[in-house]
Structures are given as C-alpha cells and as structure tokens.
Design goal:
The complex is a heterodimer of chains A (113) and B (114).
Chain A (H helix, E strand, L loop, with lengths): L4 E3 L2 E4 L5 E6 L6 E7 L6 E7 L2 E5 L6 E5 L5 E5 L8 E8 L8 E2 L3 E5 L1
Chain B lengths: L2 E3 L4 E5 L4 E3 L2 E3 L5 E7 L5 E7 L5 E3 L5 E5 L4 E6 L8 E8 L8 E2 L3 E6 L1
Parallel strand pairs in B: 2-12
Antiparallel strand pairs in B: 1-4, 3-9, 5-6, 5-10, 7-8, 8-9, 10-11, 10-12
Classes of the chains: A mainly beta (113), B mainly beta (114).
C-alpha cells in the first residue's frame, strides 16, 4: 500500500506569482485535506475534498483553491502569493467524510521571496 | 472557539528518563484527541488517538496518553526516552461530527540529551 505522496518537495516563488501543489492519496482513500504549517506553528486546516467536492474550509482567503480528481488525487492552488504564504503545505488522505484517522504526506515546502 | 494548547514549546530529557508532554483542549463537547510526531523532512505520523472508553490509550513506539475530562487534558507519556524520540510533537483535536477538521496545538520540540 502506497502512502500519501506530494510534489514538489521544495519550491521558491516570488510575491504575486501563482503556485500549484500536488498530492496523491493513499490507495483506497477518497478524502483529501490540506493544511498549512508555518514555521514554528502547528498545521492549520485549509480545506477538505470528498468525492471531488469541497466539503469543509478553514479561515483562508479565496486565493487558496483546490481540486480533487476522479482518482482522488488533489491539487492546491495559491494565487497572488504573499510573503506570509511561505510554509510547509501538508496533504492528508482518509476514507470517508467523517474519517478520524488521516495519513499525512511529507509536505511541500514553499518559500515566497 | 475551539483550541488546543501545548504549554511547553521545548523540552529536553535525558536518554532513559521519563517524558510527559502536556496538552489541553477547549471544546464544547469532548472531542476526538490525537498525538502526532513530526521528524525533520517527514510528514506527521499518528502516535495514538482517543475516541471514547478507557482513558489510558496505548500507542506506537511505547507512547501512551491519558485523557482527563476534569482537566480537559490529554498528556502524552513515555517511561524511557530514546535518542530517536527527538522530534516535534503535536496534540490535535477534532469535534465529533463529520466534515470537521483537526485543530492542532503549536507543538512541543523534544530534545534528548545523552
């Protein structure tokens, strides 16, 4: 059974640019959640996708958007990057809308200059 | 507002000594509770979870946690720490309803001295 894989692992962008981060779910999982982890902080919930629909969102502006594909992989898109968007972005997959156990990927480290 | 507090930012423990990491939560009803560990360059790994029932929960790598409703706490313990336990530890909680997300504490960094 493969775990959650994320790409890219590291990337550098400049302020105002756009970025797309990708996540492949663990086999058999149909729900994907995204979290932002700033340096020295705990992860903060961005949003969750279940069966290709967003079904939960944290306190993040609309320039944070996502997609879930029929194979349950997912993308996180961030437009108009700001310096404060620099963080580790974690993807987690699970089975079912109310799943209690999430499997996390290793994350994508985004640096905005 | 729902929140999770980890009062200790950084703890140093001697190898072989016991460990206790503190976690307090603020929720309307008892949430589901979790402890995760994060090593550099790694994702979050689930150590243990509490949903209901026995208030002492056993996890992986020799960790355990005790749920205390009266103190709104879910402290993580290990009887004898190994150097490989050095990492960042996160307590997290989730309301008992579908579609809700995990709320994490800010984490406790554990250093192990020889």
């Amino acid at each position: 059974e493969t775990g959650v894989t994320q790409s890219p692992t590291h990337l550098i962008k400049t302020r105002g640019q756009q970025v797309t981060l990708r996540c492949s779910s663990q086999s058999g999982h149909n729900t994907v959640s995204w979290y932002q982890q700033a340096l020295g902080q705990g992860p903060q919930f961005i949003f969750q996708y279940y069966r290709e629909e967003e079904n939960g969102r944290g306190n993040f502006p609309p320039r944070f958007s996502g997609l879930q594909f029929p194979n349950y992989s997912s993308e996180l898109n961030v437009n108009a990057l700001e310096l404060d968007d620099s963080a580790l972005y974690l993807c987690a997959s699970s089975f079912g809308d109310g799943a209690n156990v999430l499997t996390f990927g290793a994350g994508s480290r985004l640096t905005v200059l | 507002a729902q929140s999770v507090t980890q009062p200790d930012i950084h703890i140093t423990v001697s190898e072989g000594a016991s460990l206790e990491l503190r976690c307090n939560y603020s929720y309307g009803a008892t949430p589901y509770l979790f402890w995760y560990v994060q090593s550099p360059g790694q994702g979050l790994q689930l150590l243990l979870k509490y949903f209901s029932g026995d208030t002492l929960v056993q996890g992986i790598k020799g960790f355990e946690a005790e749920f205390k409703r009266s103190q709104s706490s879910f402290n993580l313990r290990k009887p004898s720490v190994h150097w490989s336990d050095a990492a960042e530890y996160f307590c997290a909680a989730r309301a008992n309803q579908a579609g809700t997300a995990l709320t994490f504490g800010k984490g406790t960094t554990l250093s192990v001295s020889s």
